[in-house]
Structure formats: C-alpha cells, structure tokens
C-alpha cells in the first residue's frame, strides 16, 4: 500500500508557520523519488500533504514564490504510513542589473540580463530587460541560501545587448531579502566577412562557413554558421569581442578544408578572402586485359593510409574514374572489380600538390 509525506512550512528566521501569505499559482511542495508528486500548500495552516507514494526514499522540495527553495533529502516513506517532514524556508533575494555602453557610459535599453545559480542552475533562473531611463532591470525570486549548508549562494549573471558583446559576472552573492547591485559596461561587438574563392580566384556560392569562439569566457564554444552568397561572401555579426574566433570553410570534396584564426576587438569589421585549394584526387581507367577496351560500370575502391575504404566510384562509358580523397600526401591502394572479371589492384601516390595521377587497372 502507498504511503504519504506531510509537514509544516516554517519561516526560517522565526520558526513560525507560513500561514499568512496568499500564495501564487505554481507554488508547490514536491516529492522526488521512484515517482514524482506535488501538492499546493494549505496557506491557512502552512501545512502540506503528498499522497499515494510508493514506499521508498524521496527528496522533498518546497518551491514557493518569494522564498529560496528548501530541500529535505532521504525522506523515507513506508507502506501505509505518513512520513513527517517539516521545512524551514528562507526568503529569496534579487539582483538589480544596470547596463551601459562601456565607451559612452550611456544606458542601454532593451538589454537582457539573466541570472542562474552558479552550482545548481535548476534551482533558480531569472531574467529581465533593461528599461528607461537608467538601463536597469530587476530579477527577483533568486535562491539566497544553499539548500543543504544554508551558506550564501552565488549566481552567474550575464548581460546581452544588440550590437554589443556580452559580459559575465560570476559568483555574485545573493542574500535573503536583499537586492545585489550589478553594473555592466558592454563593449561593442565585432563582425567578420569572409569571401571564398577557388584556386583560380573565382567566387564560390553556397559554401558552408562556420565561426567558433575558442577563447575562454562568456561565449566560449559558441558557433555561428552560414553559406556564401552569389559574390562568395558571408558575414557574421554580433561576435564577442575581445575574443579569439576560428573560421572554418567546409567545401565539397573538390576542395581542401580551410581554417583561419582571428583575434577580434570591439568594433572590428574584419574582411578576409580565403582561397580554396584543390583537394587531392585520383583519376584513372579500367580496361579489359584481352581487348584493352574500356570497362564501363566497374567499381574502383580506394583504401586510405589507415586501411579504411575512403572512396568507391564507378567507371563511366569510357572506362574512366575520378575520385577525391581526404588525405594527401598519401599512398592509396586501389582495387577494380567488374562482373565477369577477376579483381585487379594497384597503388597510387597522391602528392602534396594534389596533381592528377592516372593508374590503369586491367581486369582479366
């Protein structure tokens, strides 16, 4: 038979029952274990009751607006009985964030400030948008005591605004009933325009390009992607600065991959041209040993330097094949097969300059 958990919610500071607040939708006491169940507290008495719990250990959490989440671990529910677990709740705290332009000192309106618990982000998260005239926003209902030790809590607070780089404040202390002030001075963001051309200088349309922030700090690991337009260009705006970013050009198999590293500073509007080099490639033909005529539809396998089958292609009506390879310089083992013929094999060296190489496979 299932059991239950009941108890009373108390103010931590006074040990008085929390029976004098109206409560809001979303207030709950929940039990987390083999099943999850929750209930709304009775604010006339400050009590709660969670029913129909299979016997086991549960973590009980009281999550009320205006209070820090309170947790009681390892509450044992036994068959056909009610476990008693009172909870003592501290008030929540808040953060006031003011966002200004770092150079001009002018307030930035419409900036987004977000705060999350530094160690347990699931416990508390809040965000707000700065308003006139001061560029300030207020985030309330933040966890203000550690759920187990009752020590002070720390939050990571980040401010973002269009045209500006984000700024992160780590380990911001939040105290019960108090408002912690934070001032953010945002640098302007940066941009990169990449123009991609082939080895003859012709712009390439539709080439995927990515930008990854690799430097530590806010935005680390962020990736932006885009494809080049008809002029071979793609632009990435709103990039974090100062920061280091890696641009990677990811063309089709006809070209080598390319990457560049850029150190961006506020207001940078970088433009760069990346010339793609032709990828290593192999071309050849497959012939009949007796007639020395081309064999159409023969399969040619290329095995790379790590013994992996890298490419499989079919010969055309003239018995020719063409394949791009990933590794160069490298030696590849080739094997040609066709119905009614014995396999034939050979090797080919693809040099660093990716010149055409044309071995002939003769099948008997």
Order of helices and strands: EEEEEEEEEEEEEEEEEEEEEEEEEEEEE
Q: Uncertain spans, ≥5 residues at pLDDT below 50?
A: none
Helical element count? Answer: 0
Which percent range describes the beta-strand content?
over 45%
By helix and strand content, what is the structural category?
mainly beta
Q: What radius of gyration results from the CA coordinates?
A: 33 Å
What characteristic shape results from the CA principal axes? elongated
* DSSP, total strands: 29
The largest β sheet comes out as: 4 strands, mixed
Mean pLDDT rating: 91
- Summarize the amount of helix as a percent range: under 10%
Distance from first to last alpha carbon: 79 Å
Structure characterization notes:
Strand 24 and strand 25 form a beta hairpin. The chain has strands spanning 3-11, 28-32, 36-39, 47-53, 56-63, 70-77, 82-84, 87-89, 93-101, 112-117, 125-129, 136-142, 153-160, 167-174, 179-186, 190-197, 208-213, 223-227, 233-239, 243-249, 258-264, 269-275, 281-288, 299-303, 309-314, 320-324, 330-337, 344-350, 360-363. The strands form eight sheets. Strands 1, 4, 7 and 8 form a four-stranded mixed sheet that branches. It has a four-stranded antiparallel sheet with strand order 3-2-5-6, with no helix packed on it. The chain is an all-beta fold and 364 residues long. Helix content is 0%, strand content 52%. The protein is elongated and about 100 Å long. The mean pLDDT is 91.
């Amino acid at each position: 038979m299932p059991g239950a958990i009941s108890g009373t919610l108390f103010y931590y500071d006074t040990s008085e029952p929390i029976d004098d607040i109206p409560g809001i939708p979303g207030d709950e006491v929940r039990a987390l274990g083999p099943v999850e169940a929750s209930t709304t507290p009775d604010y006339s008495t400050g009590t709660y009751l969670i029913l129909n719990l299979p016997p086991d250990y549960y973590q009980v959490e009281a999550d009320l607006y205006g209070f820090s989440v309170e947790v009681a671990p390892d509450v044992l529910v036994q068959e056909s009985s009610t476990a008693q677990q009172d909870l003592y709740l501290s008030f929540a705290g808040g953060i006031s964030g003011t966002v200004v332009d770092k150079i001009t000192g002018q307030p930035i309106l419409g900036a987004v400030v977000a705060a999350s618990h530094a160690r347990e982000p699931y416990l508390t998260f809040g965000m707000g948008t700065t308003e006139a005239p001061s560029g300030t926003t207020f985030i309330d209902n933040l966890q203000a005591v550690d759920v187990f030790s009752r020590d002070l809590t720390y939050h990571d607070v980040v401010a973002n605004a269009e045209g500006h780089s984000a700024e992160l404040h780590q380990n911001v202390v939040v105290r019960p009933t108090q408002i912690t002030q934070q001032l953010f001075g945002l640098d302007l963001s940066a941009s990169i325009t990449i123009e991609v051309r082939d080895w003859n200088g012709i712009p390439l349309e539709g080439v995927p390009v990515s930008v990854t922030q690799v430097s530590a700090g806010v935005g680390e690991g962020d990736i932006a992607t885009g494809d080049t337009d008809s002029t071979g260009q793609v632009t990435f705006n709103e990039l974090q600065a100062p920061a280091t970013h890696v641009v990677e050009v990811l063309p089709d198999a006809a070209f080598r991959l390319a990457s560049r590293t850029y150190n961006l500073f506020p207001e940078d509007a970088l433009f760069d041209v990346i010339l793609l080099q032709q990828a290593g490639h192999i071309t050849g033909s497959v012939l009949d040993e007796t007639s020395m005529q081309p064999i159409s539809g023969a399969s040619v396998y290329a095995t790379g330097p790590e013994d992996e089958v890298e490419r499989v292609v079919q010969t055309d009506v003239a018995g020719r094949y063409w394949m791009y390879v990933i590794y160069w310089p490298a030696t590849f083992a080739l094997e040609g097969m066709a119905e009614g013929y014995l396999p034939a094999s050979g090797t080919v060296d693809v040099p660093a300059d990716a010149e055409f190489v044309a071995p002939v496979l003769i099948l008997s």
